[in-house]
């Protein structure tokens, strides 16, 4: 993992919040004027995104609190909790409303068409504003991915910062949703059939449901306790194997306890000739070397164990299969 600029995630979220709030107001007005289900669904989409940004700002603020007696490992996982609520918000207030509007439009009697000019103008302005927010999110994702030597897709899969991923995916969904709403509005005008408007609304609902599912699954894994980046784990294993006092690395356990914060527990079989005082000094030295090499390590526990212990060996086999 790479060290991210301290305020970049906050800037990305704040920019997205104000953009989505402005867009939500414009879409709601256009939706009422045109009576378009797709435009109203996009208004609900932007409202959901605005709530999402507010939740993400809460996540950023609360997760940065220092460790205390009740939470000795800090509050880093609060970022995952509030980000999970953001995913629920996208589904509950965005996708469900879009589905409702879509089905209502499909099964209602055909209404006289209203001039959609206002809808086109608002959707066009919204697209421009969303591009501003999306560009900031994409810039951060791209720079973070480049710093870790990964492609953007792989970075999004392994990133431990759900706030940036949430903003990037919801802004991407917003741009796609605007295209769908514009298409529904245009086809309704061309054909005179409100079915296209309803279909566009349903597709927006599906889009939001998919985004909500992806984000919920990501944050669920982080809350449960996902291991650190496998590349980092292998590097830690190798560094420990090269320590002179260590005969064998028996096990390396890691868990993400926040963005750029990793808990490490390493079980090591030390050389039998190492005395107790030397072992204590070696553990302190090894911890310092690991922190210097891997700044994301927040807490380090080194446990001396015999690699021949059958129970310990079986636990490793059950976990890794080797």
TrEMBL record:
GO terms for molecular function: monoatomic cation transmembrane transporter activity. Keywords: Membrane, Transmembrane, Transmembrane helix, Transport. The keyword Repressor does not apply. Gene3D superfamilies: Cation efflux protein transmembrane domain. Its main location: membrane. It comes from the Bacteria. One of its GO terms (cellular component) is membrane. The keyword Transmembrane applies. It is a multi-pass membrane protein. NCBIfam families: CDF (TIGR01297). This is Cation transporter. It comes from Lentzea tibetensis.
